[in-house]
């Protein structure tokens, strides 16, 4: 995935250089081949998504339970559409309406990401509320060096709110990484669905960043946001 989006980003960056036409073509062909290969590798992911949805229905908290279960179910539907598109790409089902199935796949992926972002915002809100409750029980003044930033936030309006969110994300790297990954992944569906048009360079960069975050959480499981 990281290699695929790197090819997209590089081809966008050098496509305007006349002497690089052959390289651009090779990069685009490599990107297309990797995309098709990834579809094949994802054929079993529908089962994984359904198993994950069944597991998240057991979560005690209602909001994460709803968001993650909805996300996993729509992700399973996305993998179904993805498998159909793979059948089309390898010529096993040439009569498949590719634009229609791609649109369905994109919508399912988009909704899944929105549910993940809703869960991330719930986690941030819950920690914000915790911070406020902790502050109410503290008797330290605003000049306490250790808690100065947090204590003064109430008087700072939007700036204080954003600073408090930053402090929370700084203290919880798994939440920060999950938020960054979901926001980066959102660029593709937004462009495909016409909600917010961008360019292959932005999509490629966001894809590379998202992929690197995914690799990092695989290499260091403690950085992965727990369900």
TrEMBL record:
GO biological process entries: peroxisome fission
InterPro entries, A to Z: PEX11
Record Pfam families: PEX11
GO cellular component: peroxisomal membrane
Alphabetical keyword list: Membrane, Peroxisome, Peroxisome biogenesis, Transmembrane, Transmembrane helix
Transmembrane intervals: 201-219
UniProt-annotated location(s): Peroxisome membrane
Main localization of the protein described in the UniProt heading: membrane
Record has Transmembrane helix as a keyword: yes
Classification via PANTHER family: PEROXISOMAL BIOGENESIS FACTOR 11, PEROXISOMAL MEMBRANE PROTEIN 11A
This protein's name: Peroxisomal membrane protein 11A
Species of origin: Opisthocomus hoazin (Hoatzin)
């Amino acid at each position: 995935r990281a290699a695929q989006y790197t090819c997209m980003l590089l081809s966008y960056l050098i496509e305007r250089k006349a002497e690089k036409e052959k390289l651009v073509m090779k990069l685009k062909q490599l990107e297309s081949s990797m995309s098709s290969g990834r579809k094949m590798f994802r054929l079993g992911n529908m089962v994984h998504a359904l198993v994950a949805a069944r597991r998240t229905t057991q979560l005690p908290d209602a909001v994460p339970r709803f968001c993650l279960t909805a996300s996993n179910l729509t992700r399973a539907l996305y993998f179904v559409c993805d498998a159909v598109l793979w059948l089309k790409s390898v010529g096993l089902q040439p009569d498949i309406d590719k634009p229609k199935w791609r649109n369905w796949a994109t919508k399912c992926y988009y909704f899944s990401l929105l549910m993940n972002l809703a869960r991330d915002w719930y986690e941030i809100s819950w920690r914000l509320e915790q911070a406020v409750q902790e502050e109410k029980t503290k008797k330290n003044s605003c000049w306490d060096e250790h808690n100065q930033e947090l204590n003064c936030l109430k008087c700072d309006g939007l700036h204080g709110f954003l600073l408090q969110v930053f402090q929370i994300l700084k203290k919880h790297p798994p939440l920060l990484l999950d938020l960054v990954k979901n926001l980066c992944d959102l660029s593709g569906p937004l462009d495909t669905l016409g909600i917010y048009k961008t360019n292959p360079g932005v999509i490629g960069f966001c894809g590379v960043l998202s992929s690197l975050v995914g690799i990092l959480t695989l290499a260091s499981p403690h950085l992965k946001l727990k369900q």
